[in-house]
């Protein structure tokens, strides 16, 4: 079952419980059964699923024992227990290495041929490059004919520096030369791509060890294909014995039914997953962290991802961002600020990935083109607004009834904007709703879990 479907199934089970007037054992069992079946269909290991079931049940029991609290609170207890256990399922409890600016960070990629290693190396270089790291790739795969050509082509397309050789046959020499060269040139992310096949498996592991010794990586990354599902555990253990890696990237998560199985199997080996490969394009790489991952899967958004996205944008246009931050500090987030953020985000890469990070963003399911055209229409609407409206917090779009308090929703401003932008009043209202949701998040800035605070903490 692909992740979006898994998320929907689990959500469905939780909502069924929510709709019921009271929680009882029978209801709890039915919900757990549905969740566990969905997890098993995603190839999550039977033992892990069984332990999730037991733990949710005992957590809920302990929390509800003797609790005559309100039904809504009791439902929250169940939801939280399910959420926490799902997070536990994909949480290895280990923090990965974090590349640092202003110094060389050598990342070595290992993994079997065909798993997506070379593609992932370029995606990684692009990812870090976009975030202000000077990035490059060293192709140390001399076993596969054409490996260097593949790197050369994709690195050229991505405008990333690369190193390799058509004549040198010793991968250890190439790796050492390439890393040495790029260190001297003050590159910050140096990615070493290694071979994924040999005549004998033993030789492959030996080669990885030798390259590792020569380049002294700060982090070795195992690249694994999601389609192997829970077999990911055995494969990662086999690699771990020879090439001690510190992180994993699971590729081909797009549309693969066994993705959930692969992720949970990897977590069981206590190695952090750092990214998921979600397609063949260079931007199809998503940061992975347990809690945001589950939150996003369940359609609850990913605030942390959103904050990081905003920070990346800030890197690219620090002056503009400073202005927005200043406004936020004063609790201001106008429609113009929102438009600015949306415009920036659209330049950052696939908008469909960003959309799913926003909690509750309705109707945002669809192809990249559909979502992107929806965002463009939102921008057109703001183009039809006056300066006064753009600087406002959207309240001027609300006419009041005679009592001065009750808003009449559709007013002449919305009608004018709809006409001017070739959209409908309903669309303008939806856009204003989305702006308000974002503004509320932004304005939570002063509060404990505010956006601003989160951003500052992460800097
Ligand atoms: P390597 O042999 O491990 O270096 O694998 P490659 O990088 O050559 O990738 C093998 C195939 O998998 C290529 O056709 C890639 O386009 C494809 N691929 C890699 N990552 C992904 C991914 O995340 N999703 C999808 N759908 N295909 C991928």
Automatic annotation (TrEMBL):
Q: Which GO terms describe its biological process?
A: SRP-dependent cotranslational protein targeting to membrane, translocation
Q: Which UniProt keywords apply?
A: Cytoplasm, Endoplasmic reticulum, GTP-binding, Hydrolase, Nucleotide-binding, Ribonucleoprotein, RNA-binding, Signal recognition particle
Localisation per UniProt entry: Cytoplasm; Endoplasmic reticulum
The record's GO molecular-function terms, alphabetically, read:
7S RNA binding; endoplasmic reticulum signal peptide binding; GTP binding; GTPase activity
Q: Which reaction does it catalyse?
A: GTP + H2O = GDP + phosphate + H(+)
Residues passing through the membrane, by range: none
GO annotation, cellular component aspect: cytosol; endoplasmic reticulum; signal recognition particle, endoplasmic reticulum targeting
Q: Which residues form the SRP54-type proteins GTP-binding domain?
A: 272-285
Belongs to which family?
Belongs to the GTP-binding SRP family. SRP54 subfamily.
Assembly description: Fungal signal recognition particle consists of a 7S RNA molecule (scR1) and at least six protein subunits: srp72, srp68, srp54, sec65, srp21 and srp14.
Q: What the protein does? A: Signal-recognition-particle (SRP) assembly has a crucial role in targeting secretory proteins to the rough endoplasmic reticulum (ER) membrane. SRP is required for the cotranslational protein translocation for ER import and preferentially recognizes strongly hydrophobic signal sequences. It is involved in targeting the nascent chain-ribosome (RNC) complex to the ER and is proposed to participate in the arrest of nascent chain elongation during membrane targeting. SRP54 binds to the signal sequence of presecretory protein when they emerge from the ribosomes.
Domain free text: The NG domain, also named G domain, is a special guanosine triphosphatase (GTPase) domain, which binds GTP and forms a guanosine 5'-triphosphate (GTP)-dependent complex with a homologous NG domain in the SRP receptor subunit srp101. The two NG domains undergo cooperative rearrangements upon their assembly, which culminate in the reciprocal activation of the GTPase activity of one another. SRP receptor compaction upon binding with cargo-loaded SRP and GTPase rearrangement drive SRP-mediated cotranslational protein translocation into the ER. The M domain binds the 7SL RNA and the signal sequence of presecretory proteins.
Official protein name in the record: Signal recognition particle 54 kDa protein
Organism of this sequence: Calocera viscosa (strain TUFC12733)
């Amino acid at each position: 079952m692909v992740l979006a479907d898994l998320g929907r199934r689990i959500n469905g089970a939780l909502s069924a419980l929510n709709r019921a007037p009271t929680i009882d054992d029978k209801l709890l069992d039915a919900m757990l059964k549905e969740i566990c079946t969905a997890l098993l269909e995603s190839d999550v290991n039977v033992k892990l699923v069984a332990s999730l079931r037991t733990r949710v049940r005992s957590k809920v029991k302990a929390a509800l024992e003797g609790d005559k609290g309100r039904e809504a609170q009791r439902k929250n207890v169940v939801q939280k227990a399910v959420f926490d256990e799902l997070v536990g399922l994909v949480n290895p409890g280990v923090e990965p290495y974090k590349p640092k600016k202003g110094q060389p960070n050598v990342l070595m990629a290992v993994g079997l041929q065909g798993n997506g290693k070379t593609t992932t190396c370029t995606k990684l270089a692009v990812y870090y490059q976009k975030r202000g790291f000077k990035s490059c790739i060293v192709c140390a795969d001399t076993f596969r004919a054409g490996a260097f050509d593949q790197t050369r082509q994709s690195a050229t397309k991505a405008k990333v520096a690369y190193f390799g050789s058509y004549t040198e046959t010793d991968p250890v020499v190439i790796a050492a030369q390439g890393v040495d060269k790029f260190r001297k040139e003050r590159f910050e992310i140096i990615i070493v791509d290694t071979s994924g096949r040999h005549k004998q498996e033993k030789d492959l592991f030996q080669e990885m060890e030798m390259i590792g010794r020569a380049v002294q990586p700060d982090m070795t990354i195992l690249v694994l294909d999601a389609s192997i599902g829970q077999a990911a555990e055995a494969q990662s253990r086999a690699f771990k014995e020879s090439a001690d890696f510190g992180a994993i990237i699971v590729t081909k998560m797009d549309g693969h039914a066994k993705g959930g199985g692969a992720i949970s199997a990897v977590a069981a080996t206590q190695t952090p997953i750092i990214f998921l490969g979600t397609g063949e394009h260079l931007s199809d790489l998503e940061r992975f962290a347990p809690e945001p991952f589950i939150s996003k899967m369940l359609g609850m958004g990913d605030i942390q991802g959103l904050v990081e996205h905003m920070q990346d944008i800030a890197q690219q246009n620090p002056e503009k961002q400073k202005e927005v931050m200043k406004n936020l500090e004063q609790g201001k987030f106008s429609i113009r600020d929102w438009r600015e953020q949306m415009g920036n985000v659209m330049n950052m890469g696939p908008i469909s990935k960003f959309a799913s990070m926003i909690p509750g963003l309705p109707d945002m399911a669809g192809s990249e083109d559909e979502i992107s055209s929806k965002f463009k229409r939102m921008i057109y609407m703001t183009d039809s607004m006056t300066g006064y409206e753009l600087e406002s917090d959207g309240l001027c779009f609300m006419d009041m009834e005679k009592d001065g308090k009750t808003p009449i929703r559709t007013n002449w401003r919305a009608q004018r904007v709809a006409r001017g932008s070739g959209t409908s009043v309903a669309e303008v209202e939806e856009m204003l709703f989305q702006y308000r949701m974002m503004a509320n998040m932004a304005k939570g800035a002063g509060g404990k879990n505010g956006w601003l605070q989160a951003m500052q903490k992460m800097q």
